[in-house]
Write a structure and sequence with these properties.
By secondary structure, this protein is an alpha/beta fold. It contains twelve helices and 15 strands.
Length: 361
């Protein structure tokens, strides 16, 4: 096992909630004790915690006329307070401070907001405060919500340059079939060839969480491609965090990281697919140049079409001649200027290589 210097630990709703939806306070206590031991041993820990909606559901019975979205907003608002109160009490019992960080997916769309959040969490870590991160379900717009907190934990691990991401679920990891099916085996290591095991994963969801194992694996594969170790383990096992970090845990799935690490900007872009404001279509020559092994920027002479409305600094999708998306990038020009400059030469690249992420990379 490698040395854990800075890690993000995602704790799922199915780990924190009992069968009736109420919070499992004993398990929270056990997990906080393990995290506290890590923190005191010198490992910087960021926690991404689900459980607010589940906690609120256990406290408040909404009226029948309340729609599901509104009900979840109420449960989240009530449950987040209770969840953080428990975390504060348990960390204080270990002579540590923790702090709440509520975010939305939109906060990651703008580079300035992204860096502000990164600076905030960095300052907490430097002052030995454990950040407890959760999506702000109370105000999140459905269309712009994270798939679930697995996706959020990936964003956080990437943004904070963690060496590891631990995703705690209610099963041991990725299996070759349904975990309770006879003959299914735990896959203990997944390298860069994620497609080879993707066929085994059922796109189902369970319990109180929004996501499922397919989401976890997709996020894990993406984060591993950025040079970060990812572990999926069973958060209901006693001492799961301590045993994993100390190399004593036998049953878990490890996504092996790529050796090539992405820059901070490229990490941000890699998670910005859904924030694209428009599309620039390139000719075959430009596509070939971009996808070659040589680092190449996108020049205006290679653009054949522009769609959507965007300003300088916005994120755009880059598509090939047949409409196939080959990457995304931060544009140096507005859509208005580009539309007037198709096939013409501009003074600087439309998307510089340093501000571009290609699907092949």
């Amino acid at each position: 096992m490698q040395k854990f210097k800075r890690i993000t630990i995602k704790i799922g709703s199915n780990v924190l909630a009992k069968n009736d939806g109420s919070l499992n306070t004993e398990r929270i206590t056990e997990l906080v004790n393990q995290i506290s031991a890590l923190q005191k041993a010198g490992t910087e820990v960021i926690v991404v915690s689900s459980g607010a909606v589940a906690a609120g559901r256990g406290e408040v019975e909404v009226s029948k006329k309340t729609d599901l979205v509104s009900a979840k907003q109420v449960w989240s608002a009530v449950g987040q307070v209770k969840l953080m109160s428990l975390y504060i009490q348990r960390f204080e019992a270990n002579d540590l401070h923790c702090a709440q960080v509520l975010t939305t997916k939109e906060n990651f769309a703008d580079r300035r907001h992204y860096l502000t959040m990164k600076n905030c969490i960095t300052s907490m870590i430097e002052n030995h405060v454990v950040p407890i991160v959760n999506e702000n379900d109370t105000i999140s717009v459905t269309e712009l919500m994270f798939t679930d907190n697995d996706e959020l934990s990936g964003f956080i691990a990437s943004m904070m340059n963690c060496d590891s991401l631990i995703i705690l679920s209610n099963i041991d990891g990725v299996y070759t079939g349904a975990p309770d099916k006879e003959g299914s085996e735990l896959i203990r290591k997944i390298d860069t060839n994620f497609a080879a095991v993707e066929k085994y994963i059922a796109p189902t969801k369970s319990g109180f969480g929004r996501g499922g194992m397919l989401t976890k694996c997709s996020i894990a594969s993406k984060i591993a491609s950025e040079g970060i170790n990812v572990y999926i383990a069973n958060g209901t096992r006693p001492n799961v965090i301590s045993d994993l970090v100390n190399g004593k845990l036998k049953d878990f799935t490890h996504f092996v990281p790529h050796t090539k690490k992405a820059t901070s900007v490229k990490k941000w872009l890699a998670h910005s697919q859904s924030f694209a404001k428009g599309v620039v279509t390139v000719n075959s020559g430009a596509m070939q140049a971009l996808l070659s092994e040589k680092a190449s920027s996108l020049l205006s002479v290679g653009i054949t079409a522009v769609s959507g409305f965007f300003e300088k600094g916005d994120i755009v999708a880059i598509c090939g001649p047949q409409g196939e998306q080959i990457g995304i990038g931060k544009t140096a020009y507005s859509s208005e200027i580009l539309e007037k400059s198709i096939t013409k030469k501009l003074s600087k690249p439309v998307v510089h290589y340093d501000y571009m992420v290609l699907n092949e990379q």
